[in-house]
């Protein structure tokens, strides 16, 4: 049974909803990270607390879409691993752009790679939401695994930034850039071929 076509108005509404959720996630992350920084200290929060907080908040849009889907509003596009990855990638990338522009007030050099790290990590979480959609409760374990992978990537980046050594940081930046852009392109291409 195929899913009904989604009207353009509904698609625009979804995009606006997701963008608003990313803005809400960004604002919430700032408040929560500041609170935790006061409790456990800035260094510890940056290295380990921030990835946990931000990876959860960045994936709220995916959570909302998954809940809508599971409530029997079959959004056929969510039945694709590639689309879930791409939605997560775009949500994480937008979060990273907001962070760079409004928190750090610049978007150049290695700082710009942070947006790709946010994008890649949330894209990976998107794959986890695909498993919840396709496997139901059994997919929750895979979602949790992808969440942990995203935290590990984010935490590794934050720890490399903290030691201020340019060689491992640049190496990871190049690697993340290649992996992030390649997986996004491959996901997009595979989805287009499937259509």
How would you briefly describe this protein structure?
By secondary structure, this protein is an all-alpha fold. The protein has helices at 8-40, 42-58, 60-70, 81-104, 109-135, 140-163, 166-194.
Shape: globular
How much is the average pLDDT?
81
The assembly state of the depicted protein chains is single chain
Please identify the structural class as seen in this structure: mainly alpha
Helix content: over 70%
Tell me the series of helices and strands, N- to C-terminal.
HHHHHHH
SS strand fraction: under 5%
End-to-end gap: 16 Å
Radius of gyration: 17 Å
Q: Count the domains.
A: 1
Number of strands: 0
> Biggest β-sheet: count, sense, barrel?
none
Put simply, the count of helices is 7
Low-confidence stretches: none
Keywords: Membrane, Transmembrane, Transmembrane helix
Transmembrane segments: 12-36, 56-73, 85-107, 113-132, 144-160, 166-189
Organism: candidate division MSBL1 archaeon SCGC-AAA833K04
GO molecular function, one term: peptidase activity
Structure in words:
It is a single chain. The chain has 7 helices and no strands. With 195 residues, the protein is mainly α. The chain has one domain. Helix 5 packs across helix 7. It is globular, with a radius of gyration of 17 Å.
